[in-house]
Amino acid sequence: MKLLREYIREMLNEQNVLAIGMCFPFAAKKAEEWFDSHFEARKGRAPKRHPDLNNMDKFRVIHGKVTNKWKSPPKPVVHAWVEMGDLVFDDQTRITQPGGIPKDVYYDMYQPEVVKEYNAEEVVVNCTMKGEGPWDTDLLDVMHHRDAWMKESRVRDYVRRFLAEDPARRQALAKDLEGAENWPTKTASRHRRYQFDSSKALPSGRVLKKAFHKHADQAFMKSLTTVHWADNPDMIATLLKGSSKDEISTSAYLPGELQDTYSGAYGAYGLEIKGHISLLANNMDVINTGGQSDPDYPADDSHRTKSSGKNKGVKKTYIPSAYASDKDALVVLDKSDWNPQGSDVGIYNNEALVDNWSPVAIIITNEEYYEDGDVDKLEAYADNLGLEIKRTKGELG
């Protein structure tokens, strides 16, 4: 039965007509930032508009389709991205290339098909009236194609029958959040079903992690490989000197996947750890845990920190019903939810919080780009602690 569930999910994935990740919200946010820096509302006077406010040579949002030409066979998917002059900004590459990608490189890699172009003001207005997109009828039709296909197909009956376990888990988790006194997001606005509040990160995190622990498939969680990625060897050393009770952020991989990864979302120096997974999301942005060094991160309870280590919170919280959705599951409760962002290009942008952990191995990747002496440092850490050295061999997708 489990194999049949996975087969059905694979068949649905083959439809490949849904938008990638958080691309439309990402593009909308970039447009809001551009608008805010180029438009000034003045009380009792006409607003002040910068000449470049709607200059599409300087800033434009594009809705269309992109194709991963390394996929076999290549298939176009609905997508949104931002072009600022000769640079492209994309949710899929915002971690690895926060300063943008040269336009010619992006167009060669993803072979984009431009369907609609918008200036910043058009995006802001459309977001207010219609949500974050897409707004083009043809693109919406493509995104709705799978739903229509399922309604017209007998496969829908099999999907309902064999995927029943997974929705039941998510619905139970959503019910727990609905009944939790400290869950901050109980209702949605017209255009937004989540809120971002750093001051409530720790209590929100405790509520979500409690529900996660109750409903997650613990056998699946124990099967995962978890790696904390860093920018340099010294960060690995600091982590090894810290408390293993402290909850830390990691990227999670299915058995055997780590060796084929290209790099980490936050660096090319990795520490594989084994511990208790307290929360798992396909996309780190849907939980936004931040870190203890964040200036706006609330102070943890001293007695809790002393007894059980520093806990991470959840800054971004959704209405409970959003966690029950069977499309793009916000948290991963079992194998059927597994769809980590970035896996198709070799850089996993998922997030697993892990506490009560112990180090397993030092991960070396892309060592040709390391500074002189970096590998020696990592090998010394491994030798001192009796850890294995692992090297990945993946390529950027």
What does this structure look like?
With 397 residues, this protein is α+β, with helices and mostly antiparallel strands. It folds into 2 domains: 150 residues, no CATH class; 227 residues, no CATH class. It is built from 12 helices and 14 strands. It has a 5-stranded antiparallel sheet with strand order 6-5-4-3-7, with helices on both faces. Strands 9, 10, 11, 13 and 14 form a 5-stranded mixed sheet that branches. Helix 2 crosses helix 4, helix 7 runs antiparallel to helix 8 and helix 10 packs parallel to helix 12.
Notable traits:
single chain, 397 residues, alpha+beta, five-stranded antiparallel beta sheet, five-stranded mixed beta sheet, 12 helices, 14 strands, 34% helix, globular, disordered N terminus
> Quick one: how many beta strands?
14
> What does the overall shape look like?
globular
Number of domains: 2
Average pLDDT: 83
Give the strand content: 15-25%
Largest beta-sheet details: 5 strands, antiparallel
The value of Rg in angstroms is 22 Å
Structural class: alpha+beta
Strand order of the largest sheet: 6-5-4-3-7
Low-confidence stretches: 1-5, 11-20
Proportion in helices? 25-40%
Number of helices: 12
End-to-end distance, in Å?
Answer: 32 Å
H/E series: HHEEEEEEHEHHHHEHHEHEEHEEHE
